[in-house]
């Protein structure tokens, strides 16, 4: 509707009413493919999941044969069950601890490497950049399999190396080691991507700023701390939000390591619980409810954080 | 431009249309005109099944079967249930593990082919037939292969320590202690918290039947005395440290079989195939025996694995599908191909003729199939329930914790968790559950 008034009428006078009507439809025609795809493959499935989360299956009698199962209205009972599931809260705490390990380590490393690469500007060059970025190009499942082999004492080359020094390596797929083992894969896979984001922001800083700082007697460290980091803060915030979301949705790494370890349960992370409910227990209704809870939590956490950091995030020029 | 847009719109609409349209196809068998060729799809994960089916296709020009290889029992079931829920996409014929039959029947995924299949009951052992009828009148598949449990051990290690193949579980424990004492790195076996089917088979041998039907009521007996006995036994061995606590089917376990640190395996009749793949360098050093017994005077056994061939409810050619299934599992040519080409242990009572030479990996043991036949004969009945998936995933979690803790007391406690989770799930879904 606003599109009609927004048309640049002063440059061209409308000739006929039909002509004008066709013109007004044009933006929608351009938007239609995207809108239709959005509705068909994004909005509709989400709506369907929300609908399923309010349904459940009711079995009659022995539950065998045709017609033994009927889908009925469930109200909020799936949500109640998913939130009170004794496995749910521990999985939330677990990814909380996981996030506390992964996010600072990964972003710290990414920032450090970006600053080092940027300080060297021409010397170290593309090779290091590609080398650090490469793990990001390895799919998480493949990366987890690789690390899985490295973690298993009997097949790991590390075992031989460590044993040369007379030390018996710990089995990192047991006990409290597992959290670190999974976090390590995430850090390994994610640092490169975040480094590139921060590095690109660093490259965009005009060099005269550094020249001015140097004339004023600032050291490299001071330049990094007082000029570079404040200027790339929006990138840091963006990578932080991405990492936060990735933490809430961690799935591929623990899922791939699960068959190798007694410690990783089928509800080790919230998304693994969704997978178990939907595909192991065939209870898509309760899986849908948990998915909605995770989606809302992700939304709340990421937007809450952006609200918290306020305007500093995306318009630092002001 | 307009034309392009219309095209995109049409394409998008087509796509959404394809997503939402789900014509129900439970109309049953449609009459086929004589001479018309019927196409059937068959989901299976048994090796070389496409070659087995070639034998059918060449002799039956009217009914053409196409094999669609699956990753394994669990992924195939997930795919099938998704296709059933979506209303289309299921195959005509499906390999289904015995323990998954109640789940699939409960989801209305398997067709009753009692009428189409004819009388095949006499061709199968009672326990296998019971698994495909669920004890009722309907027939949800024809038994394809069975997996009587067997014990595999390294003869060289046993001979060196003067050990015999264990007759009883007490013997097994003694052998495990002796082997581990002689070499701290060697174990006679491992307690695998990732293989619920393995533990179910061991419990079946001890006399457990985790589910039961009484009228229109289910019963769940996962923490009955027999299973408690099995859990306590293995928990004791794990706590003692004479049995490993790592899962089976990991690169670690493969390496252990291959380098001689796992010198025994309580497995099933299909064990040699796995050993051949995982521990090729130990060929000729293994021997198979009956599973150790709780009571040597009345030998018993359990199943690990085994599956039926079923017709899905979405098949439009039930009659032809049933014909194919009957050929595959009862015709001498079908049984021969199953045993020789697909390397499974056919469920049919007539399989003896097809099974003469021992598996290549155990070519040193000429009586392998005599032992296997004995193992199959003494297999105890066992009823699977409609939520085996829930119970098995509860096994992974609860016994994973117990195995990691290495405390004997945690093993029977894990059974209680398993029982509770299974019963709660059934009650929550609306099944009538006794107790």
From TrEMBL, chain B:
Per UniProt, which keywords does this protein have?
A: Cell membrane, Lipoprotein, Membrane, Palmitate, Signal
Give the residue spans that cross the bilayer. Answer: none
Q: Which InterPro entries match?
A: Bact_solute-bd_prot1, SBP
Organism superkingdom: Bacteria
Tell me the first and last residues of the signal peptide.
1-21
Record-given protein name:
Sugar ABC transporter substrate-binding protein
What is the organism field in this record? Paractinoplanes toevensis
């Amino acid at each position: 509707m606003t599109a009609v008034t927004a048309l640049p009428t002063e440059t061209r006078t409308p000739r006929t009413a039909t002509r004008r009507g066709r013109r007004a439809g044009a933006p929608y025609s351009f938007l239609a493919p995207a809108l239709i795809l959005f509705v068909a493959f994004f909005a509709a499935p989400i709506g369907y999941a929300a609908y399923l989360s309010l349904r459940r299956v009711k079995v009659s009698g022995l539950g065998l044969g045709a017609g033994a199962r009927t889908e009925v209205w469930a109200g909020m009972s799936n949500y109640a069950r998913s939130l009170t599931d004794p496995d749910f809260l521990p999985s939330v705490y677990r990814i909380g601890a996981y996030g506390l390990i992964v996010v600072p380590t990964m972003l710290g490393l990414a920032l450090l490497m970006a600053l080092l690469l940027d300080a060297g500007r021409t010397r170290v060059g593309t090779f290091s950049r590609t080398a650090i970025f490469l793990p990001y190009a390895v799919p998480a499942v493949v990366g987890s399999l690789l690390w899985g082999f490295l973690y298993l004492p009997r097949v790991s080359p590390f075992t031989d190396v460590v044993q040369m020094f007379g030390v018996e390596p710990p089995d990192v797929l047991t006990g409290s080691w597992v959290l670190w083992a999974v976090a390590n894969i995430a850090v390994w896979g994610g640092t490169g991507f975040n480094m590139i984001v921060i590095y690109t922001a660093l490259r965009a800083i005009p060099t005269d700023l550094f020249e001015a700082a140097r004339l004023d007697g600032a050291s490299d460290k001071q330049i990094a701390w007082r000029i570079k980091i404040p200027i790339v803060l929006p990138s840091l915030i963006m990578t932080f939000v991405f990492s936060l979301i990735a933490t809430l949705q961690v799935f591929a790494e623990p899922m791939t390591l699960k068959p190798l370890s007694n410690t990783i349960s089928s509800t080790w992370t919230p998304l693994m619980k969704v997978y178990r409910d939907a595909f192991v227990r065939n209870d898509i209704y309760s899986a849908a409810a948990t998915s909605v809870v995770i989606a809302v939590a992700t939304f709340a956490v990421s937007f809450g954080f952006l609200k918290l950091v306020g305007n500093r995030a995306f318009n630092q020029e002001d | 431009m307009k034309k392009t847009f219309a095209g995109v719109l049409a394409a998008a609409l087509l796509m959404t249309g394809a997503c939402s349209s789900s014509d129900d196809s439970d109309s049953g068998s449609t009459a086929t005109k004589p001479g018309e060729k019927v196409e059937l799809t068959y989901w299976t994960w048994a090796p070389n099944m496409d070659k087995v089916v070639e034998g059918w296709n060449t002799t039956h020009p009217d009914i053409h079967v196409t094999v669609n290889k699956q990753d394994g029992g669990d992924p195939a079931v997930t795919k099938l249930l998704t296709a059933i829920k979506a209303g289309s996409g299921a195959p005509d014929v499906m390999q289904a593990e015995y323990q998954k039959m109640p789940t699939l029947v409960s989801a209305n995924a398997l067709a009753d082919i009692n009428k189409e299949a004819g009388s095949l009951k006499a061709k199968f052992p009672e326990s296998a037939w019971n698994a495909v009828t669920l004890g009722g009148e309907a027939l949800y598949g024809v038994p394809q292969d069975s997996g009587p449990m067997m014990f595999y051990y390294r003869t060289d290690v046993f001979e060196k320590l003067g050990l015999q193949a264990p007759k009883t579980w007490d013997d097994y424990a003694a052998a495990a202690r002796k082997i581990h004492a002689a070499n701290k790195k060697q174990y006679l076996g491992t307690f695998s918290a990732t293989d619920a089917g393995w533990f179910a088979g061991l419990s079946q041998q001890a006399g457990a039947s985790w589910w039961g039907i009484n009228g229109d009521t289910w019963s769940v007996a996962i923490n009955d005395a027999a299973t408690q006995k099995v859990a306590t036994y293995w928990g004791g061995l794990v706590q003692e440290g004479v049995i490993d606590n790592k899962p089976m089917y990991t690169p670690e376990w493969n390496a252990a079989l291959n380098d001689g640190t796992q010198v025994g395996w309580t497995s099933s009749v299909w064990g040699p195939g796995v050993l051949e793949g995982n521990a090729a360098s130990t060929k000729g050093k293994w021997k198979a025996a009956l599973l150790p017994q709780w009571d040597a005077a009345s030998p018993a056994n359990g199943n690990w694995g085994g599956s039926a061939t079923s017709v899905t409810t979405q098949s439009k050619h039930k009659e032809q599908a049933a014909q194919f299934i009957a050929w595959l599992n009862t015709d001498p040519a079908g049984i021969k191909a199953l045993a020789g080409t697909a390397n499974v242990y056919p469920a049919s009572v007539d399989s003896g003729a097809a099974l003469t030479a021992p598996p290549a990996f155990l070519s040193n043991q000429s009586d392998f199939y005599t032992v296997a036949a004995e193992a199959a004969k003494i297999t105890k009945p066992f009823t699977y329930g409609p939520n085996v998936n829930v119970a098995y995933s509860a096994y992974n979690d609860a016994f994973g914790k117990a195995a990691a803790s290495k405390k004997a007391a945690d093993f029977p406690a894990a059974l209680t968790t398993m029982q509770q989770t299974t019963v709660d799930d059934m009650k929550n879904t609306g099944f009538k559950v006794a107790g």
